[in-house]
Amino acid sequence: MLANLSSIKEEIINFNIDNKDSLEQFRIKFLSKKGIIPQLFESFKNVEPAQKKEYGVLINELKVAANEKLETFSNQFDTTEQSIGQSDLSLPANSMPLGSRHPISIIKNEICAIFSKLGYVISEGPEIEDDWHVFGALNFAPDHPARDMQDTFFVNKKEELLLRTHTSSVQIRIMEKTQPPIRILMPGRVFRNEAISARAHCVFHQIEGLYIDENVSFADLKQNLLFFARELFGSQTKIRLRPSYFPFTEPSAEMDVSCSICGGKGCNICKYSGWLEVLGCGMVHPNVLENCKIDSKKYTGFAFGMGIERIVMLKYQIKDLRLYFESDLRFLKQFTSAY
Ligand code: PHE
Q1: Which residue among 168, 174, 221, 304 has the greatest number of ligand 1 atoms within 8 angstroms of its CB, and so is best to mutate?
Q2: How many A from CA of 234 to the centre of ligand 1?
Q3: Where exactly are the structural domains of the chain?
Q4: Domain spanning 103-332: CATH 3.60.20.40
Q5: Ligand 1 atom 2: the closest Cα is on which residue?
């Protein structure tokens, strides 16, 4: 009987396990209810008392050896199939939350899409600029208040480098290296030294348009702006142009659109005027063209520029622009769009 045990031990050691099937055969042969080892335990009661001790030790050894071998090979063949078998397939899937675009990006993209229908192409420029591109070439007088530290962030002590205060600097960069026709749209981030409040921020976004060619007139500007206003605010929208002043345009104007909330009847969004102020515009000043080596006798053109935050406020009726920069998901999740 004891000799029989040592041959079983040999069998356990030499049993060839090379896949899940042979592993299962091993388990059935040695460890299942009717398998060899439980049978040996079963027959323990028939062993002669003198041999019981030795027999007991040996069958325990066999049991440990068989279990160890089973465990080692089970780990080896623990495939994904098995782990799927152990998972609860009725559990709900992990959700994959979808982000949404920032309202400023939505409106920026929408404005770009509208002007691209009129043939405008996107141009971008640096946020850190020099005096020439932000002020000098744009016909700002040397003592213009915008050049003051109160209004502009300077990057170095000598006041040579500054954070651009408007996207008009991109006009200069493009006109310096391109001869007309030019028809560009310039979105970008701008910086002004302002106290942060519900209606003002020191970092904000503008989008600017420029069109230079032969025979471009103020009527062309007005037509482009009317098309834009109707695409963005609805086909019933009216526009009006009020005289204004910018150093780089002459004549200059401010454009209002009829209030899209009340349809021009008067409400608290338009402060009961029926009109919303939307952008600044005008015919490019001949000095600006000449500063960029464009012949102002041959070419004329117009420019316009608007604050994106303001348009977003009007479109979505947002009362405090600090919300744009607070990364509050409760605010951001409300915006979904095609753009
Ligand atoms: N750059 C002007 C501003 O920041 C806007 C503007 C652009 C006005 C182009 C006229 C033409 O207010």
Answers
A1: 168
A2: 24
A3: 2-86, 103-332
A4: no
A5: 305
- Which residues on adjacent β-strands are paired with residue 129? 162
Neighbours of 269 (CB within 10 A): 15
Q: What is the pLDDT along the chain (339 residues), one digit of tens a residue?
A: 677 888 999 999 999 998 888 999 999 999 999 999 999 999 888 888 988 899 999 999 999 999 999 998 888 876 545 555 677 888 888 888 788 899 999 999 999 999 999 999 999 999 999 999 999 999 999 888 878 777 899 998 777 899 999 999 999 999 999 999 999 999 999 999 999 998 889 999 999 999 999 999 999 999 999 999 999 999 999 999 999 999 999 999 999 999 988 888 888 888 899 999 999 999 999 999 999 999 999 999 999 999 999 999 988 888 898 999 999 999 998 887 767
Distance 32 CA to ligand 1 centre (A): 86
d(CA 197, CA 202): 9
Q: Which of 278, 285, 288 is nearest to 312 (CA)?
A: 278
Cβ count within 10 A of residue 76: 13
Residues with CB under 6 Å of ligand 1 are: 166, 168, 208, 246, 249, 280-282, 303-305
Torsion on CA atoms 279, 280, 284, 286, rounded to nearest 10: 180
Give 73's contacts (C-beta < 8 A, 6+ positions apart): 17, 23, 26
Protein residue closest via CA to atom 5 of ligand 1: 305
- Under the phi-then-psi rule, with left for phi > 0, alpha for psi from -120 to 50, and beta for the rest, what region is 28? alpha
